[in-house]
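User: quick one, sequence for these tokens?
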């Protein structure tokens, strides 16, 4: 019901493009990914100190998320690569950022769950609500990385290489405001955090602790399934983080970890 409600809200706001424009944008991102070697770079600190930027930039297509477009340091580019061909964002980020920001000029395509008209007006943005709807039936409270991975695979790349992900093993069990150890430095843009907090929306509070609402065990098991089926590949240290995540988050006492 929640999905239907959100889709209804999305349509009634007049944000959906015509079928003709929607098909064009779907064809646009399909052309970017289908049959290509794609590297999806996560925003965890796992690549710090690893000079993998050149390897990342050697792929046909480089995919990143949200705040990665705001990181300019040479050390980041050395480890995480300098390219961003496709940028996936969540709803909070897309609402706080202008699609016409200079930092986004070189990006070939924006992929959003529910893009507003201003994003669609760029001519290079499209909605991934179909993939989000599909993955929501497979994973409990999927993360943006999980949704994006499912979406990329639906577009039939010849290879999908995942790196820069530690599946939230670098964070604490509880989530504290302004403390984001699970992300590489610079990914959480202070200006955007301030704008979000200014809305007055509180973080959820369960049992006196501020929990992350994503079920990391369910998300990590999804990636393990893809790995077992050879649908994705990743370096050994990312695999180790994946298995550590499964071990760590199994049975964690959080409302998000309740299985369907």
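Assistant:
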């Amino acid at each position: 019901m929640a999905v239907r409600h959100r889709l209804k809200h999305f349509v009634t706001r007049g944000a959906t493009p015509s079928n003709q424009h929607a098909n064009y944008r779907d064809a646009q991102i399909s052309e970017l990914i289908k049959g290509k070697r794609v590297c999806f770079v996560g925003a965890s600190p796992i690549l710090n100190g690893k000079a993998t930027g050149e390897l990342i930039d050697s792929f046909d297509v480089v995919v990143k998320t949200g705040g990665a477009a705001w990181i300019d340091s040479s050390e980041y580019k050395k480890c995480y690569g300098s390219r961003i061909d496709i940028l996936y964002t969540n709803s909070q980020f897309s609402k706080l950022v202008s699609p016409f920001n200079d930092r986004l000029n070189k990006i070939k395509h924006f992929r959003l769950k529910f893009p507003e008209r201003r994003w669609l007006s760029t001519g290079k943005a499209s909605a991934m609500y179909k993939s989000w709807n599909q993955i929501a039936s497979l994973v409990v409270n999927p993360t943006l990385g999980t949704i994006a991975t499912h979406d990329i695979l639906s577009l039939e790349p010849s290879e999908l290489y995942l790196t820069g992900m530690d599946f939230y093993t670098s964070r604490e069990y509880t989530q504290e405001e302004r403390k984001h150890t699970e992300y590489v430095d610079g990914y959480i843009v202070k200006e955007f955090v301030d704008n979000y907090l200014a809305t007055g929306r509180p973080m959820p509070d369960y049992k006196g602790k501020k929990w992350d609402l994503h079920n990391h065990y369910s998300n990590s098991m999804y990636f393990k399934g893809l790995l077992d089926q050879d649908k994705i590949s990743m370096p050994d240290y990312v695999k180790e983080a994946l298995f550590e995540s499964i071990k760590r988050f199994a049975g964690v006492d959080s409302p998000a970890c309740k299985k369907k």
